[in-house]
Structure formats: structure tokens, C-alpha cells
Amino acid sequence: MPKHLASDIAVALKNRIASGEWMEHGRLPPERDLAAEFGVARNTIRRAVEILAVSGVVTRHVGRGTFLSVADASSLAGTIARMEGASPADIMEIRLLLEPAAAGFAAARASESELNAVQDAHRIAVAARDLVTFEHWDAEFHHRIFASARNDFLREVHHLVRIFRNRLPWFDLKRRSFSEERRQRYCREHEAILLALRRRDSNGAKEAMLAHLQTVAANLLNGALLSIDH
């Protein structure tokens, strides 16, 4: 494949970036999509993107994608685009920071109907026997606790985390680590969180949530507990 073809494609991509075509997402489409669009091999697209990277137009992150250097770093779309490549370990660290606090807020602020909704999610998760059903209601249990914390911004931050949790790398980790024994342990830990919420015990809810997430982290991340100062 002539080298000048990669250069021509690099120019075409640069012009489209300058026009704002991909600004909303803050990143280039996948190499396979660009290769199909231009009718060339992926190696040619890779050389074209390398030309853009050398000139500072884009930055490449292995396993995450190619991001626009010209995107407004303060824009919401640009921020979300950069977050899309977050690893399960990164997401787990954020959960360890946010969810104990959310549980503490929920213990102090939740209405009885909100606590009933948390309990309903727990009840369905306990009855689940397959990964897909359990994972859905496990996630719903946690999200309803965030909703009960009565902090709209915190709830939406967790909604964003939940979106990333539904992506393939996270689900693959869950699938590989799933067992009936672990499911039952998660349910017992959820029960401890729920009891603390019902007692309106903020510190107890924080501690129970932290203990639960440390179990999840150990199971998902090959037994390596994340170390965070509290």
C-alpha cells in the first residue's frame, strides 16, 4: 500500500476533525470503521492516525481508542469520552469512594418508600439464580441506595458509573468470577447494608457498604483489594 495513501487519509481526517465532525464524542471512530469507510486495510488507517498523533492532533491510548487533542478539555462530552476507557479497577476505586458515603446519606435521608424499594431489589436479587438476573438487581439495589441519598448530582454520577458497569469488560469479569457461593455472600452483605439503613445507622451503613465492595473488588480483581484511606 503506497505510503502517500496514509498521508492523504491523515489530511482528510485532520480536515474532518477541524470541522468539528467528531467533537461531540471527543474521539475518532474505531480503526475498523474508518478502514471500511476509506476502503483500505486497517494498517493504512493505523499509519494515518500515527501521523496525526505525531503532529499532536490526536492522542492514542492502547485498548481505549484515539482521542482528539483539540477537544475542549472542559466540555462534558469530551470528559465522558475520556472516561469510556476506564478500567474495571478504576471503576472499582470510584465505587469504594462514593458508595459508602451514599449509603450513609441514605440511612439519614431516605423515606420509608425509598427503603422499601431498596428492599424489593434485594429480595429479587436473593431469588435470582442466573448471572444476568442477579447482576441487574444487584446493580438496581445499589442505584436505589444512591437515589435514597437525596443528592441529585451524586445519583447521576452513579448512573454514569452504572453505564460503564454494563459494558463488556466489566460483565466479562462478573461472568468469570460468578458462583453461587459468591452470589449468596453478596446477598448476605446486601442484607447487612439494608439492616443498617433500616436502623438509620449512617456509620453502620457506610461500614457495611465498604465491606461489601471490598469483597466485590477481591473477587473481580483477582483477590487484590484496593487500598484507600478512609
Shape designation: elongated
Biggest sheet, spatial arrangement of strands: 1-2
Total number of distinct structural domains: 2
Number of strands: 2
- Please report the number of helical segments: 11
Percent range for β-strand residues: under 5%
Q: Can you write the helix and strand succession as a string?
A: HHHEEHHHHHHHH
Task: Please provide a written account of the structure.
The structure is a single chain. With 230 residues, this protein is mostly helical. It folds into two domains: 3-83, Winged helix-like DNA-binding domain superfamily/Winged helix DNA-binding domain (Arc Repressor Mutant, subunit A), CATH 1.10.10; 88-220, GntR ligand-binding domain-like (Four Helix Bundle (Hemerythrin (Met), subunit A), Up-down Bundle). The protein has eleven helices and two strands; from the N terminus they run H-H-H-E-E-H-H-H-H-H-H-H-H. The chain has a two-stranded antiparallel sheet. Strand 1 and strand 2 (65-68) form a beta hairpin. Helix 5 packs across helix 7 (131-148) and helix 5 (88-109) runs parallel beside helix 10. The chain is elongated and about 70 Å long. Mean pLDDT is 86; it is low at 223-230.
